[in-house]
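Late entry, written up from scratch paper. The run itself happened at the end of the previous shift, but nothing got recorded in the book at the time, so transcribing now.
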Amino acid sequence: MEKWNDLKIPFADIKDATKDFSKKIGEGGYGPVYEGELLINGECMKVAVKRLNSKHGQGLKEFLTEIDLLSGQRHDNLITLVGFCNEENEKIIVYEYADRGSLDGYLKYGNEKCTLTWLERLKIVVDAAKGLDHLHNHLPNNQVIIHRDIKTSNILIDDNWVAKLSDFGLSKSTFSGLGRSTVISYACGTPGYVEPELQQSWMGTRAIDVYSFGIVLFEVLCGRLCNVKYGDDIILSAEVAKKYYAEGILYKIIDPVIRERQISPKSFIKYSTIAYKCLEPRRWRPSIDVVKKALEESLKFQQQVSPSLPTHSISKTEWNSLQIPFAKIKDATKDFTNVIHKGDYSFVYEGELLVHGRYMKVLVKRSYEEFGQGLYQFLSEIHFLWKVAQEYYANGDLDKIIDPSLRKHMNSESLSKLSSIAYKCLHDRPLIVDVIKELEETLKIEMEHEESERLKSLSISYEEDISDEKSL
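Output as recorded:
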């Protein structure tokens, strides 16, 4: 332990810093965590002090592992090791203090007062992905660190809302290249976050962290911790998340606080797609750098519709000025009598509402709970339709799912050309000028076909008229 001499902190100093361990701020897997103030290089620094308890099962090995791995790391999205104490029976690790606590504390399903906006959630998971990407892909000498216990309670948030990975006691170090990024690993970690493959084999790779991170992504989207039962009796798990995604009904378990007014459609689709891929079997699972890139794109899409990152959680009071009592809306629409449009998930009514002292003609859209959330039903169905259309196109069976009212009128050549460019838009992503050119050619083919059919119809009609005249 001589190489860490500059990190050693006397027990007496830690005891003073925590006021004899009087302010407990949490309970980790291996012991309590305390808040303290420690004098470091002449400056008073707020710190978090993890005091290991042998009764919890963490021994010298895990203690040394955490010090070894953290002492060599300096990254904005990894918690900083301040020092440690190893005197007699005391094993203590001192970290930088994360003022805003851990991510799990903000996942309160349906509670607006203690939750995060969608933009804040995206920023946090992007930060966490950056930290994990650093461990997997950017360490010197081809070193790789597999965290092995990625979960929301191990993602800490500092005063500037920067997220940092923490708790490296179970981590393993290996090397990349030549098939060496595999480690012998017993099925450790937290139930609900551990990939199925690790429970069947002792061979662990970086993919085990990606799977755990996928669970985190769904927890963040749904505002639910995995394996916890909420008021709607749904318990979030990998199986549940995958089922709801595959069936196109993911909107049903999204945190209602963000579902109703915050998520950009592009952001939602990009995010949910990569979250799902993280839970796929190991051989198909993306690497963390791919996940990070997708999350950054999701964040970019969201910033286009809500460019500023709030520094506080959203509150109902912010919307009070726009709220209209139901009784007034009921009167304005004469008890919802004049329906002018019926949608799949809502009705639209005409009415007259007194606004700022004058009557204004208004449209009132009334959504029904039993219909679910229209926007996310729409998004999920679009995403599901894309998968179905892709499969039918690849198998040459696209005509089986075409609108029957169109099928008998369509020219086979124009159909082939249209479906081909549609498929390319989802895969090769051609330039829009090329798409326009293809569509114009398709339109020309279809117009020529329709003109030909029209002339043919006129010819048949003319021949029938001549025949009728001759019969007279």
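DSSP finds 14 helices and 14 strands in the chain.
(Scratch paper discarded after transcription.)
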